[in-house]
């Protein structure tokens, strides 16, 4: 079947054998806690996808990566969601290395050489809290920085080698400043606690990561230029663009797995099969269009618009696919019910549509894009 052929060919070119390896494992096994999906991703060299060529990686760009994530999402939603967080962290690290004379290039080389996985402990919105308000705070004592707090949920919590964390750091004028810290997962004071109780996306290892007086060298703490009203600096903007597009492509892949099952049933009306294929393909083409642009405030606004439109397309397509497959398919296997639930979780990732509506309208009036 030609459906998803372009995406799977891209995945095969970069990580030979991974698609077949994932396809050989039942979906329920891939998606359970402790499932083999993340290990397969690591074993096939997936950690190095975004590491630049000069540092031993594949040097994949954003357009390539949205196709890879759609292919992964169609095989294992948990693997796609978890690895998006790794890619988001590596993309931010690579962007920092472009303009820094620090040790970022050494870390990138280590990620490629040793297949290191990065968990992302960046702030995520909670009810009543600003999305960029970190749950991890930094204490500066002389030339040392100590971190305290926790991130929950934190994907890759059980498989991570490094943690990238947004932290609240005391600024030179006494005010708090947003910074990014890089923490070894085996550093003294780092622990993992159970958190994720839902069976949906359980394979993403989204548990709680706790930091208790974790010492971090100052050279591994990068101050950002995020303002108090949510305006983003360049690094944050690049990170958000990558996050939104990779996550959207991942969930389009999950919904594509439902479409793939519908396409295999000849008795389903041809008009319906063509409609669900077209709806997801249109959403994916929009993702690819933004992925081909240089990340900036304009492309971030576009990425958010594409992401929210994709949520609507996924909801509509998933409902039609489940109805078309019928009760026997729903009863006979847990896969249909699982994919139907998993593909809708895109709505839970930050920033929520309701919170961004006013900011996106302000952007249309010519104001800077803010993350409220």
TrEMBL record:
SUPFAM superfamilies: Acyl-CoA dehydrogenase C-terminal domain-like, Acyl-CoA dehydrogenase NM domain-like. Transmembrane segments: none annotated. It comes from the Bacteria. Its EC number is 1.-.-.-. Keywords: FAD, Flavoprotein, Oxidoreductase. Gene3D superfamilies: Acyl-CoA dehydrogenase/oxidase, N-terminal domain, Butyryl-CoA Dehydrogenase, subunit A, domain 2, Butyryl-CoA Dehydrogenase, subunit A, domain 3. Residues 120-214 form the Acyl-CoA oxidase/dehydrogenase middle domain. InterPro entries: Acyl-CoA_Oxase/DH_mid-dom, Acyl-CoA_Oxase/DH_mid-dom_sf, AcylCo_DH-like_C, AcylCoA_DH/ox_N_sf, AcylCoA_DH/oxidase_NM_dom_sf. One of its GO terms (molecular function) is oxidoreductase activity. It is an enzyme of class 1 (oxidoreductase). This is Acyl-CoA dehydrogenase family protein.
